[in-house]
Amino acid sequence: MAVIALDAMGGDHGPSVVVPAALAAVKAHDKLSVILVGDSASIQQQLGSLSESITNRMRIEHTAQIVEMDEAPSQALRYKKNSSMRVAIDLVKEGLAQACVSAGNTGALMATARFVLRTLPGIDRPAILAELPTCKGRVRMLDLGANVDSSADHLFQFAVMGTVLIRAIDNIPHPKVGLLNIGAEEIKGNDCIKRTAQLLSESSIVNYVGYIEGDGIFFDDVDLIVCDGFVGNVALKTMEGAAKLIKCYLRDTFRRSWYTQLLGLMVKPVIQQVKKTIDPANYNGASLLGLRNIVIKSHGGADIKAFTHAIEEALLEVDKNVPERISRELAVLFAEE
Amino acid sequence: MAVIALDAMGGDHGPSVVVPAALAAVKAHDKLSVILVGDSASIQQQLGSLSESITNRMRIEHTAQIVEMDEAPSQALRYKKNSSMRVAIDLVKEGLAQACVSAGNTGALMATARFVLRTLPGIDRPAILAELPTCKGRVRMLDLGANVDSSADHLFQFAVMGTVLIRAIDNIPHPKVGLLNIGAEEIKGNDCIKRTAQLLSESSIVNYVGYIEGDGIFFDDVDLIVCDGFVGNVALKTMEGAAKLIKCYLRDTFRRSWYTQLLGLMVKPVIQQVKKTIDPANYNGASLLGLRNIVIKSHGGADIKAFTHAIEEALLEVDKNVPERISRELAVLFAEE
Q1: What is the mean pLDDT of chain A?
Q2: For B154-193, how does the pLDDT look when each residue is reduced to its tens digit (9 = 90+)?
Q3: What is the pLDDT averaged over residues A327-331?
Q4: What pLDDT, on the 0 to 100 scale, is given for residue A188?
Q5: Cα-only R_g, chain A
């Protein structure tokens, strides 16, 4: 039985998303048990409104505090020791849960997880890994925002951690790893990127296939893309923004006349289908890699389906024992140095 | 009369795009004269196949060499002194043209322009500025790939140069300037970004409005976005990739059945309209800001319409005397320091 602690108060929707998502996940997975951490009245209210025969695999851990979405991580760490986020992480620390999922404040989650759970030996700061849609399926990418000044050593560690995760989770024995870079010839990357490329090509752990550019994220044949957290976060949000922009343009253009409005109605199922393919819900659940335990960050605005996906990502990582595997590979790596 | 030197051999299509684009631009603008630099036979062939009454404002400067798209900039600089790119830039240096437009190798163009024309006092390296589509119209952004390790001082200079250009070209007296950053609270940017924000908020030249995130590029109310060239290049290409990905998904989805194929045909004009709005051709022509003269980089794959747009961007900058204005503002800035 895998036990996963859920921060029921996190995200834009709190228990109204987390509780139904938990129910869906528990229904779908026999060996999953969840601890709903948060205000017991609010959680109970959500549970009550749902039919349930499986609540023996769900229990509530009452907490009185909430970490606000815009709260400073240092504040949360110091003054919110009875928050749903903190207690969910504490449950993992105490061994009462094997993973934690939160849609709350990213900075606070990162700081708290790092403080309570600690990073693996040799890792300074966890890196954020997530899945993105591509023309052929999907690709995983890290770091998406935790490390804003990554050295070549850091980027190399990201590649190792991502490789191990993909081997474990996706059953790809030698995941292809690309390094995000820019195109123009003379100015092909900075020194850090060049040194990282050197480290990666010499590695026996990482199957390094070379540089990829921004548009290559969606079209190149790789399983993992490695980048600095600043660059990765900008790329991720630019992608989201570009998709939203195209959606706006389509909507505005379909609104122009009664004829295009009619066309818009007819074509809606097709557009919906495309939206479904790139729906962030299908990709929700970013891993904080490099911690001694499993922590999954859900998008703050996640809906029930998306949060369920994040829980399932946590379950997979528990099943595959991801941190333990990463730890082993890193130990070998640091022993070699 | 403005004289613009065109690298007729640059880009994926060479004279077959550059010559008709030159003709279109000369027809549209009475006060424009162009010098077509490249293989005279190939250029003549293109000119011959077109009706022309305005060729008195077009002349050919024959050159025997071509800078290849994948050639190392240092090679081009050393061994291609009679290339179309180099001679077009030389014409500007000699005062025989007021601007140069090339769709050739970006690195070589950058290196050659910097070597031949020199940067303005206090500027190490030109920054690449281009326009992007947004939900409300367009925004300009720099640097898009020339400077891959920008300091806070560099980013600040980009903001000044971009501000002056927008004031001159777009007639916006106080362009709103945003600084590209990432979202998560604790990890809001690196030290360089924080120092840049400080510099920008203290500036009397720049109307700094704050941080913007990747998705904000398309939705925030700013006229100029400032970022490091590595980050900017990744963002630009990620945007292009995301748009291409959505196009692929739409095409694949419309192909699924005879009914959706029919729908696809009906809806084609709407999709075309949207494509037209975000068509890179409408935004083609990146400025190499910080040089003593005007150099415009066209996309390598530009079509006739797109290359014409790049020529018109050059013409505007000649008209508005952009380098001179930037030089003046920078002089004030460095005098203050």
Answers
A1: 90
A2: 999 999 999 999 998 898 999 999 999 997 554 577 889 9
A3: 86
A4: 73
A5: 21
A301 inside 8 A of chain B by CB: no
pLDDT in tens, B220-265: 899 999 999 999 999 999 998 998 888 888 888 888 888 888 888 8
As a whole number of angstroms, the distance between CA B211 and CA A230 comes to 13
The four Cα atoms B299, B127, A184, B113 give a dihedral, to 10 degrees, of 80
Can you give the pLDDT at residue B186? 47
Report the residue from B134, B180, B190 with minimal CB separation from A149.
B190
pTM: 0.89
β-bridge mates for residue B37, sequence order: B7, B61
The DSSP call for residue A134 is -
Query: In chain A, which residues have their Cβ closer than 8 Å to the Cβ of B189?
Result: 148, 230
Distance CA A276, CA A322 (A): 29
Could you tell me the two tokens for A59?
């229990």
Residues counted in chain B: 337
| Backbone φ and ψ of B130, nearest 5° | -140, 170
Of A169, A173, A174, nearest in space to A318 by CA:
A169
ipTM: 0.88
Kindly report the nearest CA distance between residue B10 and chain A, in angstroms: 15
Phi/psi class of residue A118: alpha, beta or left (left: φ > 0; alpha: ψ in -120 to 50)?
A: left
- Which tokens go with B10? 């640059």
B179 touches chain A (CB under 8 A): no
C-alpha to C-alpha distance for B195 and B240, rounded to whole angstroms: 30
Residues 92-121 of B with CB under 8 A from A: 105-108, 110-111
Structure confidence by residue, pLDDT tens digits, A223-269: 999 999 999 999 999 998 998 888 888 888 888 888 888 888 888 88
Q: Is the peptide bond before B90 cis (omega within 30 degrees of 0)?
A: no
Across the interface, whether the CB atoms of B219 and A245 are under 8 A apart is answered yes
3-class secondary structure, A307: helix
Residues in chain A: 337
Distance CA B175, CA A269 (A): 41
Q: How far is A180 from chain B (nearest CA, A)?
A: 8
Residue B279: phi and psi, rounded to 5, are -55, 120
User: Residue A294 in contact with residue A266, Cβ under 8 Å?
Assistant: no
